[in-house]
Specification:
- By secondary structure, the protein is of the alpha/beta class.
- The protein folds into 2 domains: about 150 residues, HAD superfamily/HAD-like (Rossmann fold), CATH 3.40.50; about 70 residues.
- Strands 7-6-5-4-1-12-13-14 form an 8-stranded mixed β-sheet, sandwiched between helices.
Length: about 260
Amino acid sequence: MNERLVSLDLDGTILVYDDPGGRLSPEVIKALNKFPDLRAHWCINSGRTLEDQEQIVARARRDGLELSPCALLVRESMIYQYGENFQGLEPWNSRAIEKILDLHRRVRALPGDPIGQLIKEHKPTDLLTTDSATSFLLGDADRANRFQSALKQHLTCVPEALISRNNLWVFVLHRDLGKGEILRVLMEILGFSDNDVLAVGDNDNDIDMLTGAVCRYVGCPANSTHAVKETVRRANGRISTLEAPAGTIEIMDQFLRAI
């Protein structure tokens, strides 16, 4: 039996929220602790920061997690492998930072300040426009849909820009990065084939790791967005009838029993 890898999103996939920062579900922890007997490993693939992910892992260890993730895949761009602690993968991370900084510099420098115009028109409830981020929080799904469509139209002149979504957040990513690409790089480094890897997610920023192009096995819980479910369906993946985290556990169990 080959060793296997499970790539897990956090929010809407394996977290519960009885802690302000989110905690791994106790049932997810139980499932992950069985992985060594099944020759399985796992990684987190989340848009959250490195600090957030490390804190979630630390809380999980206090809650009984025995098997640390083999890597943290951070903000759709960075890779941190586990050793004595989580170490950044180089030169990948440095090159990713260069791409990100260049992308957001170009977005901010567009003639006519379309980002400023969109902010005035759509009035996001929160935003993050820095050297390394262009992100907007909208008040409801309809506003987020309209904002996402308008942002795509304004950024057609920046071909590297990929407009993505996580719940009511709309944000700009670099097209060469994303959850699928960083998972592919990790698989290559660790020696996993596409037949040995499962990816599970629930929101639109998970889509590029759920198409079946990076790994053969993909799945999503019942609370996933329509776009995610359609992506998983086209990839012949598993759409659980259960919401997360129970749906995620069901998908992992099926994957580990099927091979």
